[in-house]
Design a protein that fits this description.
With 1167 residues, the chain is an alpha+beta fold. The protein is built from 38 helices and 46 strands. The longest helix has 38 residues. GO terms for molecular function: ATP binding; ATP hydrolysis activity; ATPase-coupled intramembrane lipid transporter activity; magnesium ion binding.
Length: 1167
């Protein structure tokens, strides 16, 4: 048994507060520091065991029971079960205990400071600080696939003072301590320092960061061995800390279930109260005391009336408790768990390039995928491929394009073209060299030679080993490769020297002194290098908004104009600047950096302050432009989401012009969209108050003009991060300015799409939270691919991660993960749609069948003197929800398809039919409840009038004169129960649209099982029972012909109103889904073969004598000549119509490059 947690608590609170501090000291090799250096305080840390399972052998039963009974339904049935054990109730405790047991059963595996040697391909046993490596430069390569899913090799660095250690003896001679922060779960953050003692000198302090920390679960690659020291072990490792689950999200369906449960609980209490009051009202007369056969003792009869009334109230609660569907929760859990596999198994959502399909990290939100109203998406890597290609660079106002075409010839890589001035001078040549050197030096790109990764050799070109670039940022690789095409090649980082090959084929060496890493707040990175001539140079690259304010000279206006032009074209831009440092300035910078890096507290804030001091007074060199192509079918996906009634917001850190170009390309904005700008530039010209109210008047005016036709509105809003901060500021200046948040939300409600640019990660989450908290409380979905998207993914109701090129942080923290953005279409429009209609039917059906089940029991009390006599046998009470009616609805909730998948993809508007929890609204719930009450009344009084005329037989038994059945309580109850089981099962069969062999097997098999069970239960004298009240009851009931006729008649009468209602509603006011069902029946087999509506192909040519259109991608698509559009199109082309497509204008043809694309009117059909 693991007592480490108890030990830690005792140590923290009992031994002394001074032990629990924000940092810890680790003694390497368990060696005490030299005398006088510092006080030696031995510390105890957890051993290296990790318990990754939720339960252990010791805590499984208590912890699991605690988790189970936190649910109100389970706790309720536990109370009912205890009441049945304590007091005399009309039903056996088994009737509540057995279902509860079934539900519970179904719903229900060091020493810090040690020096460790790890060899190649071994996994790190704990979190380690790298001391030395078999590689001469003190680096090692690691894969962290098991931690964050990234398969690329990452480089980690040994401490400079220990990197030369090669043998165990050398490592053992190390005398040092490590001070670091207490364990925390962030995989990408570590703050510490190492103090190295040399003889009696002052210890040498070196900073430690995430680049020195090897995480448990990672694997050593391409390195023979390493020496490292353990800092976090066991349950304190970052991997173990990440086992902790995220905050629980609850779906709208679950909230509706709980609301319905409260209503039924109130109905249950009302029934118990009514029966208790009526019982004592009926017994008020002395001649109507309780009958003798109730076996009440005299002591019980003499008890106080209040105690007796309360006991009777509890007894009635037990009698009617089955109206609360306890098995519904376990069925819902099974449906969610099993149903989630359909996403993982979907072959259309499998990506060949990644070799992975969609992943489900939680099954609790499946149905929420069918309720999304707002989609918040990142841009880079989500809408775009995050596969960068270098396009051009602007140096000191002059543009350079690699492989440019000049006079019909493609220039070589090294002979780049000057698009502005063809006569470079010495001054310009100096800036050109500085610019190219800056991009070859200011990065974190690694150069790798030939290597074997998972059996595949990389870096082989024409049989000869070559090098290739790798980096965590695709932008950096594109820039370095772009410089290589322009004649400057980055070679390697060796012994802390960066080597580049210039256009004169000369190798230049620069000593790398400091790297000021990129972060999303600064939006820039810098390096400080020392040239061979001894000059200190600070090179910086970053977003224009973070570079221009720090520039003191250079051709700012020319570069800014080029940057804006590239941004409008949708290219990603970066600005490059430099600064020469004197010896004193360099020493001052070193002092600021070292002081910040050695800090154990607030290291990030101190580093930010140091960077701010160093990165200033720049000389602007130029800018770069790289292209990030739109992902395949991203535009089609966004168009489908719009048709489905969802509002799509793009939240990005890019500049406005670049993001806007991507929005137009992805059809988020159309050319007819009226763009409303709420940006810093505009608020500088007008006050924020005036801009907001002006935009609000604009959208309200247009809405009033359009009347009730809201679809006619086509506004698009663009807002930047600075303005958003002002809008969300809690206290506005001036009392008359009102609440800016509400005005902003009102504007957004009237916009079909919103672009938020220059967003920090926290602002993305604030936007999502703002929309979630609005008065409509819409269901939100956030999708992204990088670590900067995690905050909004966690904030949204549903978070989806893209398995992109920026790591797997987003995928790890999401509820669902998909390979590409295009898969979101099927995730929502198909899987989400199915999940919602299935679980909505499941919930309503469970409440319906339990009303049918228990309301006859309520009516029966009026005919048995409110004596709490059960109407059904104990076996029927127990097995109704477990066996007789459970499997059909479970299977329905897994495989039902009210319309085909192709129809859902082709008609995104069908998603609107289920929006806003439409199938679980109160009117629908009341309809199902009233239907259950009606059916229950038919069951009870139909059987009652069947038994109306009775006579005594010669042997003293009571027999009905019209059915010749033996009359009795259990016969009466069995008849009602038989009609009940058949009716609720056939009701589900009538609601089923998608029939398979397994549907038939389960539905008819359940009815057959009920009959067989009843025959065995009443046909055999069971020795373990102390009563045989059901003996021969079922068989003699079935031996009566009129009883058979009565059963069929009662079932028909019960189902008839629901059938009539559906027929009338379908005929008079059909929904879009019902129209799609009718259309699907008229065209059997053809619907699934049609491509999605919004995916239109461009055709490069046609052949009039064939029934194919030849596509631009060398593929052909068959056409059916009976279709009106192909007939008209082929006839038009055969008659020599050429590209004059005016006669076909009703089909909305449009030219597309050298070919054409066409759209059918009305419901779109792609050909």
């Amino acid at each position: 048994m693991d007592f480490s947690l108890l030990r830690n608590i005792i140590s923290r609170y009992c031994v002394g507060e001074e032990i629990w501090v924000d940092s810890r000291t680790v003694y390497i090799g368990h060696k005490e520091p030299p005398p006088g250096a510092e006080a030696y305080i031995p510390q105890r840390y957890p051993d290296n065991r990790i318990v990754s399972s939720k339960y252990t052998f010791w805590n499984f039963i208590p912890k699991n029971l605690f988790e189970q009974f936190r649910r109100i339904a389970n706790f309720y049935f536990l109370v009912i079960f205890l009441v049945q054990l304590i007091i005399d109730t009309p039903t056996s405790p088994v009737t509540s205990g057995l279902p509860l047991f079934f539900v519970i059963t179904v719903t229900a595996i060091k020493q810090v400071g040690d020096i460790v040697v790890v060899k190649e391909d071994e996994t790190f046993p704990c979190d380690l600080i790298l001391l030395s490596s078999s590689r001469p430069d003190g680096t090692c390569f690691v894969t962290t696939t098991s931690l964050d899913g990234e398969s690329s090799h990452k480089t980690y660095y040994a401490i400079p003072d220990t990197m030369a250690f090669r043998t165990e003896q050398e490592v053992d001679s190390l005398h040092a301590t490590i001070e670091c922060e207490q364990p925390q779960p962030d995989l990408y953050k570590f703050v510490g320092r190492i103090n190295i003692y040399k003889d009696k000198e002052e210890p040498v302090a070196r900073p430690l960061g995430a680049e020195n920390l090897l995480l448990r679960g990672a694997t050593l690659k391409n390195t023979q061995h390493i020496h490292a020291v353990a800092v976090y072990t066991g349950m304190e490792t970052k991997m173990a800390l990440n086992y902790q689950s995220k905050s629980q999200k609850r779906s709208a369906v679950e909230k509706s279930m709980n609301a319905f449960l409260i209503v039924y609980l109130c109905i249950l209490i009302s029934k118990a109260v009514i029966n208790t009051v009526l019982k004592y009202a009926w017994q008020w007369s002395p001649d109507r005391d309780e009958p003798w056969y109730n076996h009440r003792t005299e002591h019980e009869r003499q008890r106080h009336v209040v105690i007796r009334a309360f006991t009777d109230f509890l007894a009635f609660m037990v009698l009617f408790n089955y109206i609360i569907p306890v098995s519904m929760y376990v069925t819902v859990e099974m449906q969610k768990f099993l149903g989630s596999y359909f996403i993982s198994w979907d072959e259309e959502m499998f990506d060949e390039e990644l070799g992975e399909g969609a992943q489900v990290n939680t099954s609790d939100l499946n149905e929420e995928l069918g309720q999304v109203e707002y989609v918040f998406t990142d841009k880079t890597g989500t809408l775009t491929e995050n596969n960068m290609e270098f396009i051009e660079c602007c140096v000191d106002g002059n543009v350079y394009i690699p492989h440019a075409i000049c006079n019909g010839q493609i220039l070589s890589a090294a002979s780049s073209i000057d698009m502005i001035d063809a006569s470079p001078g010495g001054y310009r040549r100096e800036y050109e060299d500085l610019f190219f050197r800056a991009l070859c030096l200011c990065h974190t790109v690694q150069v790798k030679e030939e290597e074997t990764v998972d059996g595949i050799k990389r870096g082989i070109h024409q049989g000869r080993p070559t090098s290739f670039y790798i980096s965590s940022s695709p932008d950096e690789v594109a820039l370095v490769e772009g410089m290589k095409r322009l004649g400057y090649t980055y070679l390697r980082l060796k012994d802390n020297y960066m080597e580049i090959l210039n256009k004169d084929d000369e190798i230049e060496r620069f000593e790398l002194l400091h790297v000021l890493n990129f972060d999303s707040v600064r939006r820039r990175m810098s390096v400080i290098v020392k040239s061979s001539s001894g000059d200190y140079l600070l090179f910086c690259k970053g977003a224009d908004s973070s570079i221009f304010p720090r520039v003191v000279s250079g051709k700012v206006e020319q570069v800014k104009a080029r940057v804006e032009q590239n941004a409008v074209e949708g290219l990603r831009t970066l600005c490059v600047a430099y600064r020469r440092l004197s010896e004193s300035e360099y020493q001052e910078a070193c002092h600021h950096l070292m002081e910040a890096k050695l800090a154990l507290q607030d290291r990030e804030q101190r580093l930010a302050q140091a960077y701010d001091i160093i990165e200033r007074d720049f000389v602007l060199l130029g800018a770069t432009a790289v292209e990030d192509r739109l992902q395949e079918k991203a535009a089609d996906t966004i168009e489908s989401l719009h048709k489905a009634g969802m509002k799509v917001w793009v939240l990005t850190g890019d500049k406005m012009e670049t993001a806007a170009a991507t929005c137009y390309a992805s059809k988020l904005f159309r050319r007819t969209t009226q763009i409303l700008e709420l940006t810093k530039k505009r608020t500088e010209e007008q006050s924020l108050h005036d801009v907001l109210f002006e935009l609000n008047r604009t959208v309200l005016r247009q809405r009033s003009i359009s009347g009730l036709s809201v679809d006619c509105l086509d506004f698009g809003l663009i807002i930047d991060g600075a303005t958003l901060s002002a809008v969300l500021k809690p206290n506005q200046e001036g009392a008359g300015h009102g609440n800016y948040r509400e005005i902003f939300l009102e504007i957004c409600r009237n916009c079909s799409a919103v672009l938020c640019c220059r967003m920090a990660p926290l602002q993305k989450a604030q936007i999502v939270k703002l929309i979630k908290a609005s008065k409509e409380h819409p269901i939100t979905l956030a999708i992204g691919d990088g670590a900067n998207d995690v905050s909004m993914i966690l904030e949204a109701h549903v978070g989806i991660g893209i398995m992109g090129k920026e790591g797997r942080q987003a995928a790890r923290n999401s509820d669902y993960a998909i390979p590409k953005f295009k898969h979101l279409k099927k995730m929502l429009l198909v899987h989400g749609h199915y999940y919602y209609i299935r679980i909505a039917e499941l919930v309503q059906y469970f409440f319906y069948k339990n009303v049918c089940f228990i309301f006859p029991q309520f009516l029966y009390q009026f005919f048995c003197g409110f004596s709490q006599q059960p109407l059904y046998d104990t076996a029927y009470l127990t097995l109704y929800n477990i066996s007789f009616t459970s499997l059909p609805i479970l299977l329905y909730s897994l495989v039902e398809q009210h319309v085909s998948m192709d129809t859902l993809k082709r008609e995104p508007s069908l998603y609107r039919d289920i929006a806003k929890n439409s199938l679980l609204r109160w009117p629908v719930f009341l309809y199902w409840t009233c239907l259950g009450v009606f059916d229950a009344v038919v069951f009870f009084f139909g059987a009652y009038f069947l038994f109306d005329n009775t006579t005594f037989t010669s042997n003293g038994q009571l027999m009905t004169t019209n059915t010749q059945m033996m009359f009795g309580n259990w016969t009466f109850g069995t008849l009602i129960f038989t009609v009940l089981v058949f009716t609720v099962t056939l009701k589900l069969a009538l609601d089923t649209h998608h029939w398979t062999w397994i549907n038939h097997f389960v539905i008819w098999g359940s009815l057959l099982f009920y009959v067989i069970f009843s025959l065995l239960w009443g046909g055999i004298i069971w020795p373990f029972l102390n009563y045989q009240r059901m003996y021969y009851v079922f068989m003699q009931m079935l031996s009566s012909g009129p009883a058979w006729l009565s059963i069929i008649l009662l079932i028909t009468v019960s189902l008839l109103p629901d059938v009539i209602k559906k027929v009338l509603c379908r005929a008079m006011c059909p929904t879009a889904t019902e129209r799609a069902q009718d259309h699907q029946k008229l065209l059997p087999g053809s619907v699934a073969d049609v491509t999605p509506l919004s995916f239109c192909r461009s055709c490069k040519g046609t052949s009039a004598d064939s029934s194919h259109l030849h596509l631009g991608t060398a593929e052909s698509l068959s056409l059916c000549r009976s279709d009106p559009l192909p007939q008209k199109l082929l006839a038009h082309l055969a008659e020599g119509g050429g590209t004059d497509l005016c006669p076909l204008s009703p089909y909305m043809l449009r030219l597309s490059g050298a070919g054409f694309a066409y759209y059918a009117p009305g419901p779109e059909t792609s050909v």
